[in-house]
Amino acid sequence: MTTTLSLISVLCLLPVLAGCSPQASEHQIVLPVNDLVSIPLNSVNDGGVHFFTYKWKGKNVNFFVRTDGTGQLQAHFDACYSCFKYKLGYVQEGNQVVCIACRIGYHLDDVLWDYVGACAPISLNSRISDDRLIIRRSWLEKGKKFF
């Protein structure tokens, strides 16, 4: 009984302890050129979820790119307004992106996720130019507070 209670206590504390971690996880590093992060479309336009890290002032600013049900690319910070303090982000599970902290999932086909609530991934401005997805460095830097 004592062992079971100890295990339950540890499992309940994991999200709290993760929030105390000094740094969000690290993904494929992207570097800006002329204040723009540029990602080749052919590396992200495949229906999957692709995670990236922009390093700024000692922080990992994480984001991901996905293809929605209309074939358009969507960029999001790897954080939400509710669970960002845990610095856990999201993971792809089948046809969903799932918050690691609270386990709420979002279907990749949905165009908008903001309507779902405070745990939805935070949208990140991006645009398509020629054969590249472009994200301004200043747009990424605005998300530093989530990491």
Description:
This protein has a single domain (2-146), classed as Rieske [2Fe-2S] iron-sulphur domain (Rieske Iron-sulfur Protein). It is built from two helices and ten strands, in the order H-E-E-E-E-E-E-E-E-E-E-H. It is α+β, with helices and mostly antiparallel strands and 147 residues long. Helix content is 16%, strand content 33%. The strands form three sheets. It has a four-stranded mixed β-sheet with strand order 1-3-4-5, with no helix packed on it. Strands 2-10-9 form a three-stranded antiparallel β-sheet. It has helices at 2-19, 137-141, and strands at residues 28-29, 36-40, 49-56, 59-67, 73-77, 90-93, 96-99, 105-107, 127-129, 132-136. Residues 4-20 have low confidence and may be disordered.
Attribute tags:
33% strand, alpha+beta, 4-stranded mixed beta sheet, Rieske Iron-sulfur Protein, 147 residues, 2 helices
Order of helices and strands: HEEEEEEEEEEH
Number of strands: 10
CATH class type: Mainly Beta
Terminal residue distance: 38 Å
The gist of it:
By secondary structure, the chain is α+β, with helices and mostly antiparallel strands.
Question: Topology of this protein?
Answer:
Layout: H1 2-19, E1 28-29, E2 36-40, E3 49-56, E4 59-67, E5 73-77, E6 90-93, E7 96-99, E8 105-107, E9 127-129, E10 132-136, H2 137-141
Parallel strand pairs: 1-3
Antiparallel strand pairs: 2-10, 3-4, 4-5, 6-7, 7-8, 9-10
